[in-house]
## 1
Amino acid sequence: MQAISASIVRSLTHGTYCTCADNSGAKEVMIISVYGYKGRKRKVCSAGIADMVQVVVKKGKPEIRKKVERAVVVRVRKEYRRKNGVRIKFEDNAVVLVDDKGLPKGSEIKGAIAKEVGERWPKVAGIASIIV
């Protein structure tokens, strides 16, 4: 994974429910693991902004429910700091479903996404309406 310009606060842990911000058919997902997480044995994995996570779809269309998918975290409620001193936080925790290469499954993203997501996942930022 590519480094980003903010100091990440890893606030989304295993079992966190997030809203799905794209039009792929999923409404609510639950984080079950984090890709690239290196931690101590039996420690609960955690994710922050622009991390790729493995999720299970809890609410949404019947054909996508109960499926394990990959997703990228685009919004977090926990405040984090950028290098220029600005502190950013959003209203909700949100993810966007992606495939193995990081290409988004939906064709549009509802709401704003963080600038750090665009640095690491340019294809996700390409379909976003607002980048903060």
Note: Residues 56 and 68 are 4 Å apart (CA to CA).
## 2
Amino acid sequence: MKLALGLLAILTCSVECPAGASPCPRLSYYAELAGKATGTPTGLLEALWFAESTCNPNATNRRTGARGQGQILPGGSAARGFPDEALWDVSLNAILSAEHLKRWRRRCGSWRGAVTVYHGNGRCSARSRWADLVIENWRNGR
């Protein structure tokens, strides 16, 4: 179900968001700060957040409990020991999601692999249409 919703969100932006427009205009400031702090591309963060939560900092995954725009899992490696309630902070969620993505980029050797693992597939080299669409939207500036 999450995959279907994520693909729908990505495809919607592919159709409705003009090239070069931010998919997360309300979160662009946080993406820029987190991107600069971690060396993660701002546009990739926004494309990822759009796919994960449609850029909703109040989003909750009912099945896993993942929180915020970056869908940080309480108690997971991306949460880095922060209390569950702290994950609702938009700026903290931005930094944690950017750091997590950057760590996977170092391990996987590519942003595509990092996005694949970030989304929940345990292997950097796994085929993921979801990751392909996130990367495509990032590269097309959507």
Note: Helices lie at 2-16, 28-38, 42-53, 90-108, 111-118, 129-139.
## 3
Amino acid sequence: MASTEQIAFWRAISESPDDDTPRLVYADWLQEHGEEDRAELIRVQCELDKFEPDQRKKRKERGALRFRERRLLKLHQARWLSPLRSVLLLKSQGNRHRQFDFLEFRRGFVKYESASLDELRAIAARGDELEPFDYLGMIEAAENYCPDSVRAVTRWAGAGCLRLLSLGGCGDAE
């Protein structure tokens, strides 16, 4: 269960999704509270995000950061994703659960590009129990569209991470 202080950090991150400062302040807090590896992942990924793809001068530095990132994820990714997996598994359909293998971390938080509306509703319903996302995208077929569901998602405190909301095939009436 997240503390009030932790929830405040998560809200700050959600409210400024493109700013690394709240993430790095949260990383300091995590380190002070015994989560050194998660703090390091946030710092490493924020640093990696600053590199331009063609910066040849910094290849060695980037390589060292990538090595550390892979090591941290190999050791801890399953544990860090478990709260989200438990929510998404409840809403998974068919073989959709395989998609969880492709969840990734970016700038210290989950990047989930193709959530369904049901999954987004389940995430929003958990409110402050889940960390913010770095990026959250949803593409949904029009037949699954429900205005109340979209309103519920947009009222969610973590909705700042919702970067893509595409409702394919919606008619003018919707």
Note: The chain has a mean pLDDT of 81.
